């Protein structure tokens, strides 16, 4: 089920920050209260796809004495995409809530 | 470097060989991730948690496919547009007479057929029908080569004016380079298709 919303999850997790893949996976795990422990290998191709679609931009950073990492940040198109996906999700979730809460 | 991470990265490099540039990018990024993870769980578990290299390569191929299809279509469209432009340039500058002979028919008919194929490839690319895109673009490349060849023969036969040979040779060179570029794009697309089919 999460797979269909992976793009939204990634865009929302990155938000206004610039994060590398490992940090994104950790953030998803932490912020979801451990509900979403995604297979790590699935995240990087998804990040690459979002970058090719112009929703993310990436660059290499290497802190002094640290490991070189590729960090991702939202582009303007990515921010617009996140707004759209949030609205889509709220509408979808609202509809499901109404169906589940409805009494016959 | 030896150990599970090194072996994993070697295997990943092997299965990502369908796109050398992508393979280099992925290698550095995933190496960094695996060593971050290994600090907490050890190399063997870091590799296990990441997933099988063949699955990762397939996921990358799927992720990059829309962009790869778009690039191939853009390369074909550039080639089609340039062929049209150079054909017109030769006709005007060399004062090539029009006619209804076989060469003229091949020249114009080949170009029209190629442009139709490129349009079809573009439509197929929107639906990610990779096999149909490949067929349409291969056909377009063949039609463009036919059209360009006929156009060049017409220029040699009927062209006149100063520097005619230089103009014909120059435009032929540009067309040959663009055809080469398109064939490279198609070869890369073929490698993607093989990876996705594996």
Short account of what is shown:
The complex is a heterodimer of chains A (104) and B (198). Chain A is an alpha+beta fold. Chain A has helices spanning 6-14, 21-31, 40-52, 76-101; strands spanning 19-20, 56-61, 69-74.
Characterization of this structure:
With 104 residues, chain A is of the alpha+beta class. Chain A has one domain (2-85): Arc Repressor Mutant, subunit A. Chain A has 4 helices and 3 strands; from the N terminus they run αβααββα. The longest helix of chain A is centred in the C-terminal third of the chain and has 26 residues, at 76-101. The two termini of chain A are 26 Å apart. Chain B is mostly helical. Chain B has 2 domains: 4-51, no CATH class; 65-197, Up-down Bundle (Butyryl-CoA Dehydrogenase, subunit A, domain 3), CATH 1.20.140. Helices cover 86% and strands 0% of the residues of chain B. Chain B has 7 helices and no strands. Chain B has helices at 4-15, 20-41, 43-50, 53-93, 102-126, 130-158, 164-197. In chain B, helix 4 (53-93) packs antiparallel against helix 5, helix 4 runs antiparallel to helix 7 (164-197) and helix 5 (102-126) packs antiparallel against helix 6. The radius of gyration of chain B is 23 Å and the shape is elongated. Chain B starts with a helix and ends with a helix. The A-B interface holds A 20-22, 39-42, 44-46, 48-49, 52-53, 60, 67-70 and B 26, 28-30, 32-33, 35-37, 49-52, 55-56, 59-60, 62-64, 66-67.
């Amino acid at each position: 089920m999460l797979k269909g919303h992976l793009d939204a999850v990634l865009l929302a997790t990155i938000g206004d920050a610039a994060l590398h893949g490992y940090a994104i996976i950790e953030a998803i795990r932490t912020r979801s209260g451990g509900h979403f422990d995604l297979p790590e290998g699935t995240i990087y191709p998804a990040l690459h796809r979002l970058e090719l679609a112009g929703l993310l931009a990436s660059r290499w950073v290497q802190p002094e004495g640290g490991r070189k990492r590729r960090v991702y940040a939202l582009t303007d198109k990515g921010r617009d995409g996140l707004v759209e996906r949030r609205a889509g999700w709220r509408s979808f979730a609202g509809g499901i809530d109404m169906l589940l809460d409805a009494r016959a | 470097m030896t150990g599970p991470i090194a072996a994993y990265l070697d295997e990943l490099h092997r299965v990502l060989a369908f796109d050398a540039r992508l393979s280099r990018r992925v290698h550095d990024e995933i190496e960094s991730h695996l060593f971050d993870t290994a600090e907490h769980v050890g190399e063997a578990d870091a590799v296990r948690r990441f997933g099988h290299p063949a699955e990762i390569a397939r996921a990358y191929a799927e992720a990059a496919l829309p962009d790869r299809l778009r690039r191939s279509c853009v390369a074909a469209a550039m080639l089609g547009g340039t062929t049209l432009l150079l054909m017109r340039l030769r006709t005007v500058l060399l004062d090539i007479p029009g006619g209804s002979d076989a060469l003229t028919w091949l020249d114009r008919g080949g170009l029209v057929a190629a442009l139709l194929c490129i349009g079809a490839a573009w439509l197929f690319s929107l639906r990610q029908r990779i096999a149909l895109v490949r067929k349409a673009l291969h056909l377009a490349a063949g039609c463009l080569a036919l059209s360009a060849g006929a156009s060049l023969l017409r220029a040699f036969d009927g062209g006149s004016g100063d520097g005619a040979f230089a103009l014909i040779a120059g435009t032929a060179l540009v067309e040959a380079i663009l055809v080469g570029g398109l064939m490279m794009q198609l070869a890369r697309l073929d490698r993607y298709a093989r990876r996705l089919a594996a």
